[in-house]
Design brief:
Radius of gyration: 36 Å
Largest sheet: 8 strands, mixed
Strand order of the largest sheet: 14-16-17-19-20-22-24-23
Distance between the termini: 77 Å
């Protein structure tokens, strides 16, 4: 139910944004209010509201006021909820300065309470540079990029290629890889348990001839007193070893589960191995009959077939290895586990614990990638969302499309032990090291560039004092020699227009937008004492800018522009990256950047008469 404008409401609410103002008139007594036409406010633009009423006790509550609760004009009720009292002048909700936190795209509820009556309404904040669909796609793609990078790391730790995931269900493959990774320690535990398993001794009583009774205790005496008629026999205690304990029943259960998993996996591996072999034989027969060279993709399938065969053999050997424990003298004396109560021995004895941990890991449906909860805060602001999304696009393109391998830093410092992997928050100053052959890249996120040359972990410094914290930086090394940098800034704003980030046309820097001067300064003010190492004369190095280019990456919504443009006067490259698009040009530009960095290194190295110490 929505109260239409003709219904009298004892207050007036007006929105002001940019050069526009409009009155909010649709209110309902139902807290689950639904509006046909929800009023819209654009993110990151100055926004204020005017709340007026003849009732001095009127209160306006609104989602988002909590971030303004310490500002003058906002009051707190007895439950410490912020609200606005009636006021004839506008109250600023957001101003495009660092003092205000921007409203996040999404729906916001308005609640007005007057004389015990409550009125509800809604408004929506829409993205400025993206459509709502693109904004949601960007958020989803960011999570997919995080999970994809985590999966790359898991594959690296487990030692398998991506192609194998296409042939075997991930659940079975992960189970096999987890067992394979832990199998040596499992077999060591089982070998020890063959002869040194937990047991209890229990006292039993047998009637034996008096002259053969080896021990007498109170029970023996009690039996003799209660049965005086038995003269030639005596109830004598005998101690027996009891292996049928809870922890040993667990071992028996775990071994059955392991054996079943390995048998299923071996069967599945053989099935996919045979199917791939048949497919491969047909293709090889065609190429051999035609005399053509075997293409690369078929050679890759041959390697995959070899991997599958080695996995089949390994799974079968592991199945046989597990049977060794069944030869233990105690194994047949142990019963089945009925109620899976955890024995303390499973937790403190390392032999039992290793088996139990493996069992627990195998109970999960598949590996779980856990994304740090702090991302929820970073994803709220669209500019931060775009920045992290773009940074991870760079990282994933380098790994998935250009063949680099994550070596260290951020996610790549995490250890995967099976079961789950935490994707940590991407914090400022994070440096990710990537390597391909003799080329090493250091992808740095939101780090301060010093104003003086320091240690080699800061290969460049800035001659100016203002533009020294880019969103991203790519430092290039060849055989440990620093050979150049690409600086990257993510601009969540239009390339042209009133709030443009790029307008280099005016000849005087003071007339350019501040963001334009920033992009130009990143290269113009850069210097390094490490560039090209000992391969060039230090005097020659002073004339070279270590930053080859500055990249400005921005979304392309509501504008038809080239995917990439280059300003050769200032060495600034403009790249569109848009959620939901293929963005294939990013790979091309990264390839070109690597080639240009290497070419420049060869050029300067070749121009130096002989290696010198810098």
């Amino acid at each position: 139910m929505v109260i239409q404008p003709e219904f009298s409401i004892p207050f007036q609410l007006t929105f002001h944004q940019y050069e526009r103002q409009w009155e909010i008139t649709q209110f309902s007594p139902d807290p689950e209010v639904q509006l046909e036409n929800v009023p819209e406010v654009v993110e990151n633009l100055d926004f204020s509201i005017t709340f007026q009423s003849e009732h001095s006790d009127a209160r306006l509550y609104m989602d988002g006021l909590e971030v303004l609760s310490e500002r003058e004009g906002i009051e707190l009720d007895d439950q410490h909820r912020p609200y606005l009292p009636p006021e004839d002048k506008p109250y600023v909700i957001f101003k495009n300065t660092e003092d205000y936190y921007p409203l996040i795209p999404g729906h916001y509820r308005i609640t007005v309470i007057i004389n015990g009556d409550t009125y509800y309404s809604l408004f929506r904040v829409i993205p400025k540079q993206l459509s709502q669909e693109q904004w949601e796609l960007m958020r989803d793609e960011l999570e997919a990029e995080l999970r994809g990078l985590a999966l790359d790391l898991v594959r690296k730790h487990l030692g398998v290629g991506e192609a194998l995931f296409e042939y075997i269900p991930p659940k079975k493959l992960f189970q096999f890889l987890i067992i394979r990774k832990r199998f040596d320690s499992i077999m060591a535990s089982l070998s020890d348990l063959m002869t040194r398993v937990y047991f209890h001794t229990q006292k039993h009583y047998n009637l034996v001839p008096v002259d053969r009774a080896r021990a007498i205790d109170q029970e023996s005496v009690r039996y003799k007193l209660t049965h005086p008629e038995v003269q030639d026999s005596l109830k004598s205690p005998i101690r027996r070893i009891e292996y049928d304990l809870l922890e040993n029943r667990w071992i028996k259960r775990i071994l059955k589960v392991l054996s079943r998993h390995l048998e299923d996996i071996a069967s599945s591996l053989m099935q996919y191995r045979d199917a791939l072999a048949e497919e491969l034989n047909e293709s090889l027969l065609y190429f051999s009959s035609s005399g053509s060279k075997i293409p690369v993709f078929l050679r890759e399938k041959q390697r995959l077939l070899a991997d599958l065969q080695s996995f089949v053999v390994m799974a079968q050997k592991m199945c046989k290895g597990l049977q060794i424990i069944k030869l233990a003298a105690w194994f047949e004396q142990v019963g089945e586990l009925v109620e899976p109560t955890v024995s303390p021995v499973l937790l403190y004895d390392p032999r039992y614990r290793s088996l139990y941990q493996l069992y627990r890991e195998l109970q999960t449906e598949s590996m779980e990638i856990v994304i740090d909860s702090h991302y929820a805060y970073q994803w709220k602001r669209t500019d931060q969302l775009f920045e992290i999304w773009g940074f991870l696009k760079l990282c994933r393109t380098l790994i998935n499309q250009l063949g680099f391998e994550g070596v260290s830093g951020w996610l790549f410092d995490q250890e995967y032990f099976g079961g789950n992997l935490l994707v940590p928050t991407l914090l400022p100053e994070t440096a990710i090291v990537l390597r391909r052959d003799d080329i090493q890249l250091k992808l740095v996120y939101n780090a301060l560039i010093p104003s003086e040359q320091g240690a080699e972990n800061h290969p460049i410094y800035m001659l100016g004092n203002f533009h020294n914290r880019p969103d991203g930086r790519l430092d290039f090394y060849q055989n440990e020699t620093y050979i150049g940098t690409i600086i990257i800034d993510f601009k969540y704003r239009p390339r042209r227009g009133r709030y443009a980030f790029w307008n280099p046309a005016p000849r005087t820097a003071s007339r350019r937008p501040a963001a334009t001067n920033q992009l130009i300064a990143y290269r113009a003010d850069s210097a390094s004492r490490y560039l090209y190492g000992s391969h060039i004369d230090p005097r020659q190095r002073e004339q070279i800018r270590p930053v080859l280019e500055t990249w400005a990456i921005y979304p392309g919504y509501r504008q038809i522009e080239p995917e990439t443009e280059y300003d050769s006067n200032h060495h600034v490259r403009l790249l569109q990256l848009t959620p939901g698009e293929s963005n294939v040009h990013l790979k091309r530009e990264l390839e070109n950047a690597i080639a240009n960095i290497l070419r420049m290194f060869e050029l300067y190295r070749g121009s130096s008469p002989s290696p010198v110490n810098s």
